[in-house]
Amino acid sequence: MDMTRRDIHNSEVPALCRSCEVRHKGMCGALTPDELLLLSKHTRQVQHTSGDELVGEGADVESYDNVMRGVVKLSKTLEDGRQQIVGLQFAPDFVGRLQAGESPMTAEAASDVEVCRVPRAMLERLVEQSPTLRKRLLEQALRELDEAREWMVTLGRKTAAEKVASLLLLIALHLDPEQKGEKRLFDLPMSRLDIADFLGLTIETVSRQMTKLKADGIITITANRHIEVLSLTRLKARCG
Amino acid sequence: MDMTRRDIHNSEVPALCRSCEVRHKGMCGALTPDELLLLSKHTRQVQHTSGDELVGEGADVESYDNVMRGVVKLSKTLEDGRQQIVGLQFAPDFVGRLQAGESPMTAEAASDVEVCRVPRAMLERLVEQSPTLRKRLLEQALRELDEAREWMVTLGRKTAAEKVASLLLLIALHLDPEQKGEKRLFDLPMSRLDIADFLGLTIETVSRQMTKLKADGIITITANRHIEVLSLTRLKARCG
DNA sequence: CACTGGGCTTGATCTTGATCAAGGATGGAC
DNA sequence: GTCCATCCTTGATCAAGATCAAGCCCAGTG
């Protein structure tokens, strides 16, 4: 039984992190009322604006974040500055490498982001004592692993046109899974440079491919980041 | 505390899977003697020769494999046949997507391989009852996730020359971590086509880059797959 | 309003790696 | 041994995408 992000979000386990004063089910959903109460005393709701760094590559892990709203991008950088985005985290994902002293990558707010921050010691204590939480975290790790491997196919074997289509599809499906039908309207949570860094391309190539999708009547671009997908089917057909 | 593959292999937990009549610590190391005894009654040692498929993409997951010897490659294929290798599994890695009805990718023996095969129902029962095993599996999932993301940087942002150097380095360090000093002697566990599919390149490009590394005195190629790295430092310097 | 700067698009040209095409090694079958 | 198939290398050419170079759009500022 494969739990999707949606399933986790909608699961029936009651969860209320008091310091955040909201229900967030990504992590808390796995906890007992007692554990939740304990957790609540240590969590802190934090707002980030686009571009803020949550954790730096190689920095000591001090805390973990449960994404409540917005999109967090995970990236790695080579010595000479070449950058690759290795993952996007949407609500209610959990950000932060467990069981590691230092973060293997940078986590940065792609859009304005709201997170529930848990101190490292606290979370590790909970992970230690809660098998349910470990199970939930294993599920997320396995899902992220699937997503990373899926993306490796995109990076290694798809053309620029297919890469751009794949990213638009990914975002369209993640940002508002509620929208039905063939059309999707959304704001890109990232700049052209971010897109290029995610796809292993340059901004110019991304721009040209977006223009082409527009010319072919598959999307319309209202503002730079305001996208409407006119036909999901035709978009999927371009994903390779 | 980050457990490396080596640490797991060398951990002090006693483990003996009776049907295999060998200690294999990747998975069994996390079990109690009672659980191990139970497991032993259901495992089966299986030999595969290079090219054998362990699990097909989209096939129902019937069992899981603990790699004992050799290298298993994980790959995904697009409809039109383009293939991407998304991971290599060395002993004592565990092969098989937990908590999924069907495998998201193909697992294939890259070299001759020996595995300890556990029926699905059996493993799921053990995972359910053993928090230690879940912890061990979470560790492997997190390590694989790190490796996958590291490889995304290689796929997305490195040149052909850097990609080939990175793969040789990866294999040199994995296959025999005992070898010390600047030199490494090993057999490539994969064909030029496999290498190309791992790196998102063509066989011709791989071949040219290997020739270049040889010409530059960084490796010698005895037979097609018999490689000696003459200077790890100089190889690392080419990894980008 | 004009000015500025950042992010995006578009065009011209160049480079890297793909593609097409031969030919060379290696190993198994007979 | 010869034949054959498979895998690998090398060379010539091509094309996808990078790079270089303007110019555009738009929000923010004075």
TrEMBL record, chains A, B:
> What InterPro entries does the record tag this protein with?
cNMP-bd_dom (IPR000595), cNMP-bd_dom_sf (IPR018490), Env_Response_Regulators (IPR050397), HTH_CRP (IPR012318), RmlC-like_jellyroll (IPR014710), Tscrpt_reg_HTH_Crp-type_CS (IPR018335), WH-like_DNA-bd_sf (IPR036388), WH_DNA-bd_sf (IPR036390)
PANTHER family (UniProt xref): CRP FAMILY TRANSCRIPTIONAL REGULATORY PROTEIN, FUMARATE AND NITRATE REDUCTION REGULATORY PROTEIN
- Species this protein is from: Rhizobium oryzicola
What taxonomic ancestry is recorded?
Bacteria, Pseudomonadati, Pseudomonadota, Alphaproteobacteria, Hyphomicrobiales
Keywords in alphabetical order: DNA-binding, Transcription, Transcription regulation
Q: Which Gene3D superfamilies match?
A: Jelly Rolls (2.60.120.10), Winged helix-like DNA-binding domain superfamily/Winged helix DNA-binding domain (1.10.10.10)
What is the name attached to this protein's record? Crp/Fnr family transcriptional regulator
Domain HTH crp-type: residue ranges: 158-233
Q: Which CDD domains match?
A: CAP_ED (cd00038), HTH_CRP (cd00092)
**Which parts of the sequence belong to the Cyclic nucleotide-binding domain?**
27-144
